[in-house]
Amino acid sequence: MTCIRFALLGSGFIGQVHAASLARHERTVLAMVADADPERAKALASRYGARAVTVAEAINSDAIDAVLIASSTPSHAALLEAAARAGKAVYCEKPIDLSLARARQVVEKVLPLGVPVTVGFNRRFDASHQQLRREIEAGAIGQIELVQMVCRASVMPPLEYLRSSGGQMRDQAIHFFDLLRFLTGDEVTTVAALGVRWRWRKLPNSTMSIPLLSCCGCAAARWRSWTTPGAPATATMSALACLARRG
């Protein structure tokens, strides 16, 4: 069985999650780790028997098949372009960039290169979400009229991560925009948002409520908080409910 040799760029909050997944999967090998903080890269690399290297070494190495970008959001676009130019397959954490124009520019540059690239919208691959989509497609619950999504983090990410993340809308809500499109097969046409920023925490919009409307008239309500307690201690909790009309 051929294993895909990965270089991980970024060894912070989400980088450590990806490192564990790459080390655990039978078809992937975590070969290299790079980070703006060399000591942090060394610590994570040593945990999984990988090598700590510079970003340039990781991207240009012939011993690497794919690059996983898990660095801070402002660095995603440039790293994605560089890895694709080097002929590497790329998994890039979302978003590509906080600027829509810059994200589109990256797509225009990378598409002609013909390398495999995916952005980290992982919720649609969750087994329970895939089962729900099959039920919806089979008509088991009727025509969807309302989707309600609730997500609470079990542990608040580090402030360093949150301050460069782009806030709830661009860092977390986009997961649920993608999930709504995946489940309903429809496109969102209208979005509104109400955000709360706790001054004492110095966080960008730590709690948000987001109503949406799709092309076919399906309404959705999405609520997300970084700071609300009560989620399971081991994972992020996502609750999704669909109200459907039969006939």
UniProtKB/TrEMBL annotation:
<dbReference type="Pfam" id="PF22725">
    <property type="entry name" value="GFO_IDH_MocA_C3"/>
</dbReference>
<dbReference type="Pfam" id="PF01408">
    <property type="entry name" value="GFO_IDH_MocA"/>
</dbReference>
<dbReference type="GO" id="GO:0000166">
    <property type="term" value="F:nucleotide binding"/>
</dbReference>
<feature type="domain" description="GFO/IDH/MocA-like oxidoreductase">
    <location>
        <begin position="129"/>
        <end position="200"/>
    </location>
</feature>
<feature type="domain" description="Gfo/Idh/MocA-like oxidoreductase N-terminal">
    <location>
        <begin position="4"/>
        <end position="121"/>
    </location>
</feature>
<dbReference type="GO" id="GO:0050112">
    <property type="term" value="F:inositol 2-dehydrogenase (NAD+) activity"/>
</dbReference>
<comment type="similarity">
    <text>Belongs to the Gfo/Idh/MocA family.</text>
</comment>
<dbReference type="InterPro" id="IPR055170">
    <property type="entry name" value="GFO_IDH_MocA-like_dom"/>
</dbReference>
<keyword id="KW-0560">Oxidoreductase</keyword>
<dbReference type="InterPro" id="IPR000683">
    <property type="entry name" value="Gfo/Idh/MocA-like_OxRdtase_N"/>
</dbReference>
<dbReference type="InterPro" id="IPR036291">
    <property type="entry name" value="NAD(P)-bd_dom_sf"/>
</dbReference>
<protein>
    <submittedName>
        <fullName>Myo-inositol 2-dehydrogenase</fullName>
        <ecNumber>1.1.1.18</ecNumber>
    </submittedName>
</protein>
